[in-house]
């Protein structure tokens, strides 16, 4: 998995204001009466919003640097976050959760089937009776791969910076992609992140869910719970214990 400590201090330059998924996760969290766990809570993009809304929210992340940034922002807002340094594959918390969320495609950082299954089983152990898991990740698109892979593309312009992405296969048979995001100002790289992701297809994830002990779920084609009909859509999953 990626070492996010290396870019924890610059991560928010691009991602803190990202909000396309926020209404969905806030709505799911407000529906439940018990505690909510955010896996891979990072610097608190969603987690701090949960606290602001009065949700009994907990969080885990495997990056000390990311959690440090979260703690700073929480302290500035008068919050005492309940977050812990932990790995989604094998964490142990003395609590059961009504909802576990894994936003922003974080599950894709698990690169092997063993890691993916370990995480799903760990989530299941931490669910309260009738608890749910919500997460999202992209549908691997042949169109995106053929158009964008192997070359750098402009992702966004923000705060005087150009944000550029580069993706390509590191191990195509095993569906492993290597990616890099650069912040460029006046032709000079001022921040850079590197990470790897594993492609997961719809039916592949359904098999993983079955192997992890789940039998009931819904998959949508977006955060408004649209029907999934195209590889251009984001897969949004709601899984029940």
Q: Could you say what the CATH architecture of the largest domain is?
A: 3-Layer(aba) Sandwich
How many individual β-strands?
11
Q: What's the average pLDDT?
A: 95
- What count of helical segments does DSSP give? 7
List low-pLDDT spans: none
Portion of residues within helices? 25-40%
Distance between the termini: 27 Å
* Structural class by secondary-structure content: alpha/beta
Rg, nearest Å:
18 Å
- What string gives the helices and strands in order? HHEHEHEEHEHEEEEHEE
Q: CATH homologous superfamily of the largest domain - what is it?
A: Vaccinia Virus protein VP39
Shape label: globular
Q: Bin the strand percentage.
A: 25-35%
CATH-assigned fold name of the largest domain = Rossmann fold
Assigned CATH class of the largest domain: Alpha Beta
In total, the number of domains comes to: 2
Enumerate the strands of the largest sheet in spatial order, edge to edge or round the barrel: 3-2-1-4-5-11-10
Biggest β-sheet, characterized?
Answer: 7 strands, mixed
Q: What tags apply to this protein structure?
A:
Rossmann fold, alpha/beta, 241 residues, 2 domains, globular, 28% helix
């Amino acid at each position: 998995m990626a070492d996010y400590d290396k870019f924890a201090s610059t991560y928010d330059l691009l991602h803190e204001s990202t909000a396309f998924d926020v209404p969905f996760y806030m709505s799911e969290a407000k529906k439940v009466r018990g505690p909510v766990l955010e896996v891979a809570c990072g610097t608190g993009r969603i987690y701090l919003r949960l606290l602001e809304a009065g949700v009994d929210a907990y969080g885990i992340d495997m990056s000390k640097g990311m959690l440090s940034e979260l703690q700073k922002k929480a302290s500035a807002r008068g919050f005492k976050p309940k977050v812990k340094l932990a790995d989604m594959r094998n964490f142990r918390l003395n609590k059961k959760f009504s909802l576990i969320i894994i936003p922003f495609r974080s599950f894709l950082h698990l690169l092997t089937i063993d890691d993916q299954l370990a995480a799903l089983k760990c989530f299941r152990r931490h669910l309260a009776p009738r608890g749910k898991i919500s997460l999202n990740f992209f549908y691997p698109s042949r169109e995106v791969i053929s158009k964008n892979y192997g070359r750098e593309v402009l992702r966004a312009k923000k705060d005087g910076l150009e944000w550029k992405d580069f993706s390509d296969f590191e191990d195509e048979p095993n569906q492993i992609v290597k990616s890099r995001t650069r912040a460029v100002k006046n032709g000079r790289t001022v921040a850079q992140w590197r990470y790897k992701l594993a492609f997961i297809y719809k039916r592949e994830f359904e098999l993983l869910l079955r192997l992890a002990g789940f039998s009931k779920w819904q998959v949508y084609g977006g955060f408004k719970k649209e029907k999934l009909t195209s590889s251009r859509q984001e897969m949004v999953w709601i899984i029940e214990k």
